[in-house]
Design goal:
The complex is a heterodimer of chains A (183) and B (336).
Chain A (H helix, E strand, L loop, with lengths): L2 H17 L40 H5 L2 H13 L3 H4 L14 E2 L5 H10 L14 H14 L30 E2 L6
Parallel strand pairs in A: 1-2
Helix pairs in contact in A: 3-6, 5-6
Chain B lengths: L1 H15 L13 H33 L20 H34 L4 E8 L2 E7 L7 E4 L1 E5 L4 E7 L4 E3 L8 E3 L5 E5 L5 E6 L12 E7 L1 H12 L8 H12 L1 H5 L23 E2 L4 E2 L2 H9 L1 H4 L12 H11 L4
Parallel strand pairs in B: 1-5, 4-10
Antiparallel strand pairs in B: 1-2, 2-3, 5-8, 6-7, 9-10, 11-12
Helix pairs in contact in B: 2-3, 5-9, 7-9
Classes of the chains: A mainly alpha (183), B alpha+beta (336).
Chain lengths: 183, 336
């Protein structure tokens, strides 16, 4: 076996291996199109600790670890003035989003439900103001505030002044109900 | 032979067509005209110098070679009497040429600065991925006008444009009128436009800013002062209320659903601030920052599925029902 033959074979193999690298899907249109209320966005989406959670919504996979969805969510978070109540995760008039404590559940589909339906004490319902794709994107970003998203998917740069380290260095908070520290 | 003549004719025709709406050699603005003057001077001077250098090179190549030297030859170190004056003349020519170019560019710079010293209109252009937010700032703040993706300029009036960016670095460029100027997030830059000829021009983002960089254009209209004032007062008016039942249905959808979260229509509850202002959408030449000409079909295509018209742009596909879509388009068409 000549060295030329061996080298070209190695090169071919390297190219083949590279082509197998998974490329992140970027769905600009947000499939499926025209879908109305998905299962997670129904009025009955609050699962107290005693209830049994349904399986994760199938659309979660498309948004949860997706860098472009998280980046779009970050943009929408500022455009829709989420910071007006929740600040940049620290909370204010609204609850904090960076402490890993979730009154209505910290799973992405539960956050989508909270955004869509609104919650007591001031959180408005965004169902008709945002498209579903946008709500999923915002939920994907909200999860990064408490370090729930993988570090290779989140943006290292925030657009606003921040007293906390960037999301790539945020410590992952364990998900727990909001009243867990009131013991 | 005939074919060669045809080729020359075609090349000439192609060159002649270089006077469109987006043309660096248009010279329709003060700065652009200055640029063309300077460009012509540089071109002529550099061509002359180039021809002299090439002529000297050819002369050196073709000069008859001297006969072989011998030890007894006492003349081989002598140079031709023409060399010394030629070198002096050459040096003088280079010094003169460079001086002329330097002084000329100095005067052109002064001329540009003189135009910039007394702007009559101030406006702010904010770049976004991938559209232009335009605001006219008159001393009377109640006459502040906000529009998007189009600017109108009165002819022979210097206009000062403050440039901002909301996301990444863009570049503001109307080739027919003036040079480029970058728009940098967190910083203010500015440019002065002094249009000398009425007409329709096209501005274009000149710094790569993302997937739809190529579809980030600006419709520029240079018109007489009276036309400009007429346009300005028409744009200041709020949107007319919808008249037909179909238009009313579109109005209701627009002001209560997804559209209003981002778009503003003056005189209605729709007051979103993160997407182009649509108060007089139907009076513009194009939609989606020059991506599509303004007409009913394109409006339908754009509102029904913006991601198929300009993939990656920040307007989401809403998933409208056909009757909602018909109503929306009927309403948007009234926004003259």
């Amino acid at each position: 076996m000549s060295s030329l033959y061996r080298n070209s074979l190695a090169l071919l193999l390297a190219v083949a291996a590279l082509s197998a690298c998974e490329r992140e899907e970027r769905q600009s249109r947000g499939k499926p199109l025209g879908e109305t209320v998905p299962a997670s966005v129904s009025p009955d989406t609050i699962f107290p600790q005693t209830g049994k959670l349904p399986p994760l919504h199938p659309r979660a996979a498309a948004y949860e670890r997706n860098a472009s969805a998280i980046a779009e969510g970050q943009r929408l978070y500022s455009w829709m003035n989420c910071a007006g109540c929740h600040s940049h995760g620290g909370g204010g008039m609204g609850v904090a989003l960076m402490d890993g404590k979730w009154r209505y559940g910290g799973r992405i589909d539960q956050i989508v439900a909270s955004i869509a339906e609104g919650r007591p004490n001031g959180m408005p319902a965004w169902r008709d103001r945002l498209t579903e794709q946008q709500m999923w994107q915002i939920a994907a970003y909200v999860r990064t505030l408490s370090g729930q998203a993988p570090k290779d998917a989140v943006s290292a740069r925030t657009d606003e002044m921040s007293g906390t380290p960037p999301a790539t260095q945020t410590r992952r908070e364990p998900t727990r109900p909001a009243d867990s520290d009131q013991q | 032979m005939n074919r060669r003549i045809a080729a020359v004719a075609i090349a000439g025709a192609l060159l002649a067509s270089c006077n469109g709406v987006q043309n660096v050699m248009g010279g329709d603005g003060a700065e652009s005209a200055n640029f063309i003057r300077l460009f012509t001077l540089f071109m002529v001077l550099c061509t002359i110098m180039y021809l002299i250098v090439v002529a000297a090179l050819l002369a050196a190549l073709w000069r008859r070679r001297r006969s072989g030297l011998t030890v007894d030859d006492r003349r081989h170190h002598q140079i031709s009497p023409i060399v010394r004056p030629a070198l002096i003349a050459w040096t003088a020519l280079v010094v003169t040429g460079l001086t002329v170019l330097t002084v000329a560019s100095f005067f052109i710079d002064r001329s540009n600065a003189a135009t910039a010293s007394k702007p009559a209109i101030h406006m702010t252009v904010t770049a976004n991925q991938w559209w232009w937010d335009v605001e006219y700032n008159l001393p009377d703040v109640s006459k502040t006008l906000r529009t998007a993706n189009e600017i109108h300029l009165p002819v022979n009036v210097p206009v000062h444009v403050t440039l901002k960016s909301n996301d990444v670095i863009h570049s503001f460029w109307i080739p027919n009128l003036a040079g480029k100027q970058d728009l940098i997030p967190g910083r203010l830059t500015d440019v002065l436009l002094l249009a000398r000829k009425t007409g329709l021009y096209r501005g274009q983002c000149a710094e790569f800013c993302g997937v739809q960089h190529a579809q980030m254009a600006l419709d520029v209209t240079v018109e007489s002062k009276r036309d400009f004032e007429r346009w300005y007062s028409a744009q200041l008016a709020t949107a007319k209320p919808p008249a037909t039942p179909l238009q009313r249905a579109g109005y209701r959808y627009f002001t209560t659903r997804e559209c209003a979260a981002c778009h503003n229509i003056s005189g209605t509850p729709a007051s979103g601030q993160v997407a182009p202002d649509l108060t007089h959408l139907a009076s513009r030449r194009s939609i989606a920052a020059g991506a599509l000409p303004m007409n009913k079909g394109n409006l339908y295509g754009w509102v029904a599925d913006p991601q198929s018209q300009k993939p990656g742009n920040h307007m989401p596909t809403v998933g409208l029902e056909p009757n909602e879509l018909h109503g929306l388009i009927a309403y948007l068409e009234t926004l003259k």
